[in-house]
Amino acid sequence: MTLKERIQAFAQLGERIKSLTDDEIDNLSFRARNENSWFTSESVKSTLNTWGECLTEKSLSSWTKDYALTPKASKKVGLVMAGNIPMVGFHDLLSVLISGHTAMVKLSSQDKVLIQFVISEIRIISEILGSHIVHAERMNEADAIIATGSDNSARYFKHYFAQHPHIIRQNRTAIAVIKGNETAEELTDFGKDYFQYFGLGCRNVSKIYAPKGYDFVKLIDALMGYETVLDHHKYRNNYDYNKSIYLVNGEPHLDSGFFLMRESQELVSPISVLFYEYYNSEAELDLTLAKHHDKIQCVVSANGWYEGSIPLGKAQQPELWDYADGVDTLEFLSGI
């Protein structure tokens, strides 16, 4: 297939996703929740909507136009997928197939239903493209590897796949920068960055940097509309557990009634907890964030005022070219 034909096939997939009926979405959501209880109807629907909007000929053509994606020979690229949020491994599958290679897919046990759904749809749309997807438990025959996991599993991956061209992804998180003059609406939008997917994604904000003396009460007030997260039993269990630990240990913290805030120099907070740290100047903040560069997936701020950041509320709306670890996947695939 030519690159243009591959783009057209994925654009058809986008149209298929957008045409899903309520009953089809409900069925997918039900099956996905049975597999991973962190997945909700809302999160599955949101993910499907996002991909339906992304997979257009215009977006796909814009994404791929600067790469040489006509390989002399199709390579087998092993994909070890994560399953922390719905369809998190799809971008890698898309990247491999749009590059003209074959994807050897090892699905996460936490996210088989949704990925298998899109694979089935790809095979219906194009038998040729579908033939470039194979399921694999072992990667012995892979020519290259893209693996996503925890910091611990990444060490194993790097050792095991040392002789293969590879992208090995580790834990990352997002952070927010508060200036102090944000409107209530902007702070409410921040709730999407923090609460969506219950904070389980690498693009979920786990920590806020705020100017010295900032009053977090107005932030908590702006986020009250998200208190329904407590309806999820796993989230509530985390909230109750972390709250009890802080109380027993006498650790200073803020309690909104449905999420906790604690001052910390650590970057990644537990589920239901939002860390914060004060800064005295933007120069000081720049130095602090530079030290954490390898662990920060993205930065959000009101209207993207902080250099290199995206607007509050947009952390979970990446473009096709917003790569999971800052490593250009298409450039990697075009060079193997």
Please outline the helices and strands:
Blueprint: H1 3-18, H2 22-35, H3 41-54, H4 57-64, E1 76-80, H5 90-98, E2 102-106, H6 112-125, H7 127-130, E3 133-135, E4 144-148, H8 151-160, E5 166-169, E6 173-177, H9 184-195, E7 205-211, H10 217-222, H11 233-249, E8 254-255, E9 260-263, E10 273-279, H12 282-291, E11 296-301, E12 310-311, H13 329-334
Parallel strand pairs: 1-2, 1-4, 2-3, 4-5, 6-7, 6-11, 7-10, 9-10, 11-12
Antiparallel strand pairs: 8-9
Helix pairs in contact: 1-3, 1-6, 2-6
Averaged pLDDT: 96
Range of helix content = 40-55%
| Element-by-element helix/strand order | HHHHEHEHHEEHEEHEHHEEEHEEH
**How many DSSP E strands?**
12
Strand content is 15-25%
End-to-end distance, in Å?
A: 19 Å
Enumerate the strands of the largest sheet in spatial order, edge to edge or round the barrel.
Answer: 8-9-10-7-6-11-12
Query: Stretches where pLDDT falls below 50 for ≥5 residues?
Result: none
Coarse shape: globular
Number of helices: 13
Radius of gyration: 21 Å
Structural class: alpha/beta
Write structural notes for this entry.
This protein has helices at 3-18, 22-35, 41-54, 57-64, 90-98, 112-125, 127-130, 151-160, 184-195, 217-222, 233-249, 282-291, 329-334; strands at 76-80, 102-106, 133-135, 144-148, 166-169, 173-177, 205-211, 254-255, 260-263, 273-279, 296-301, 310-311. With 336 residues, the chain is of the alpha/beta class. Strands 8-9-10-7-6-11-12 form a 7-stranded mixed sheet, sandwiched between helices. Helix 1 (3-18) packs antiparallel against helix 3 (41-54), helix 1 packs across helix 6 (112-125) and helix 2 crosses helix 6. The protein is globular.
